[in-house]
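Pasting two entries for a bug report.
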Amino acid sequence: MSLFWHYLLAVADGNNDSDNNPQPDTLYYPTTDATWETVTAESLGWNTAAFSDLYAFLELKNTKSFMILYDGRIVSEQYFNGHSAQSLWYWASAGKTLTTACTGIAAEQGLLDVNAAVSTYLGAGWTSLPANKEQLIKVSNLLTMTSGLDDSLGNSVAPENLQYVADAGTRWAYHNVYVKLQDVVSEVANKTWATYFNENLRDKIGMNGFWFSSGEDLSVYSSNTKSMARFGLLMSRKGKWFDQQIVPEAFCDAATQTSQNLNRAYGYMWWINGESTYRLPQLQFQFNGSLIPSAPADMYCALGKNDQKIYIVPSRKLVIIRMGDSADGTNFALSDFDDALWQKINAVIQ
């Protein structure tokens, strides 16, 4: 079944569930950072003695900030190495998921179709592919990293740098071409990407931050830690903020589940734990086992260069944020640090 039909079926299921018996929204959401409620680890029955080992490990591993939310409330908020609650830091590729969210919003607004060819919105010639091959690349292929474009040519998304390797949908490769989704959204909304993002996502959930270019067409988001936590909370609530559906629920479900069979640990730019196999950026090799073995099987996560992390665990009502420099050597998304960190977290949450 195609990605598009999975999305349509999910929409239909969602419509059948709640319309007949609407329930009031009783979940907690923060209003401002200053009034963000907390909950104690003791009241949750956690092993508070293990926090000291966790914090020492985080500080040793070049962490700048770390947060744990339980059911929306702050359990732990720590800053290291000169960082503070007001400090801004880059999300790196963890911010890809912001582009995912805005793509879903634009689709719900009727501005784009995830099953349409990218050239429908950007015109012919946005790659160097023959017209018949370029036409195969759909919006969904950019969401799932299955464009078939050559991922060995660097980060630039200029047409001369977008070269054919395989037909869209037949090869998974981590590629910066996803950023063309921002061009698509900007084109169909007739607004700059930053303006659309701010109006439709950032400002609605009380985030701060801004987009900046780091060269070679890279579009990177920067914010404080609580803004990253707000977005994690939004996604943990399936796109809902208070009583407003910001990102379509069905789209959130599709984004945080396996999206194709080439890399079962990948959704729509979200990484999926608990699958039997996974692939990593810059490698054409399939690994056996779960992405992060020590983490809960139902976890999904946004992962960025140098260990920027949003971990979401629905079964435990957890959203966990880590910002900082690389824990060890430079890495592109996933590293051994993830598994080691989860061993420390597990000792706390038992």
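Entry 2 (this is the one that rendered wrong in the viewer):
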Amino acid sequence: MTVPATPVRGTDPPHTVPGTPDRGAPGGFAGAVAAEWTKLWSVRAPCLALAAGLAITGVFTYYYASIARINEHPVQPVGNAAASSVALVQFTVVVLATVAVTSEYTTGSVRGSLLSVPARHRIHAAKALVAAVVAFVAGTTFAVVGAAVAWVGFDGRASFAAGPSLRQVLAIGLYEALVAVLSTGVAFATRHPAGALAILATLLWALPGILLGLGGRTLADRLPHGAGDHFTRLEPEAPYGPVPAVLIVAAWAAAAHLIGLYVLRRRDA
């Protein structure tokens, strides 16, 4: 005679011992993050983008410092060279974060990702977090390398102080992380690399240049890169301080994140 199994008291559903993982959501958010980390490095584009960012940083900062030395510009913080290079280097982060999303839509593997992580907000947040962490580490690395290269190029026409230099390094890393979140949101909204890159290039580069050319400095300062430039550079005459600047960039990143999540929930795979 078969004796029926006795449910474990106080558990829901029966036969589930407290503390065991839920089979419906293996790994939870940590598992989703681990999966996104693995997928990010399974393609070559992120590595190529980071290598390009390092090369661009070195070339641009040495050029910036050399021009300042040749033209005998006033002495400035050495970190300003690395902060100025962000205008170009940020697009390597844009490519990295965009590919992390659009590559799955291009290959159709996004269906498997959504089946393994049914909670749409979870997979969306996991991709944004992984891209932001990689972008922060990359941004701080670019800043350190850029400052070191620029110090040689300045040849005495730059100042160095540990506190301000560290602040600039962390500020550049934080800005790049917010750009990664912004790019992830746009990529989820467009689902196509060309469309995402076109929107981000317009927002981060073309539109600010047009506004500055037309005398719209105030509007340009409210765009992500305008605010980021004030946040990363040590400017005694900036229109606003570093806290409002980073809040402006964070607001743009949050808006893009919410739009991308809305599209993901409405259109799914």
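Dev reply: Rendering is fixed now. As a check, the viewer should reflect this: The chain has one domain: 28-267.
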